[in-house]
Amino acid sequence: MHFEGLSAVYHQARPPYPAALWERLDELGALRAGARAVDLGAGTGHATGPLLAAGLDVLAVEPGPTLAAELQARFPAASVVVARAEDAVLGEDTVDLVVAATSIHWMELDALLPHVHDALRHDGRFLVWRNVFGDSAAPPTPFREAVGRIVARRPGPPRPGSPEDERVTAAALSASGLFAVEEISRFPWTITLDADAVQRLFSTFSDWSEGEAAAAAAAVRELGGSVIEHYLTWLVVLRPVDGSGTTPS
Asked: What is the DSSP letter of 141?
């Protein structure tokens, strides 16, 4: 519910997913006009909007009522349901595409994966992707060094797990045997942000305090007023496995 209090600024604060991601989804045949898609943990619609623009019929599932209202206002063509992804009524064998865009780390996989598996048609796909705000493979920058110093001042231990590691996520998603990993892709990209944009963006990170976001914005000002951030979007494409342990050809 951290994001509920930020619904007015969330859509503007979070950058869109890179064009290369959508181009790859189109190449995979995932963006078929008329197909039925479910966007889980849809937020204010950063994935819902492009799915609708591609001609898909989209059910957007968002647990936060304020965020859901913002999403519905932005994208009236979407069907919006206020519910946890694990609890939403999706039907059985009715969905061509299920998407979890920078949201899977909030979900209980033991409950979610059978639910998604039941909803997908035999030739459907489960697409999981995430924006990583700070590409560890990119050259270090003075701003990223400042971000590291802010994080290092935190009194507690780092957050456990590796939610930003696509291979860890892919292993968790396929461990049940309900899904097979078809592809893992990475899309590096850059964005120029000024101090205000950094403060808005970092304030939407659930593990960043308001004071830490302000400190990151101050670092931008000290560095001349704008910075180039190196980000990464990863994509995991999964196909459902049937009762015999096979995926459709």
From this structure: -
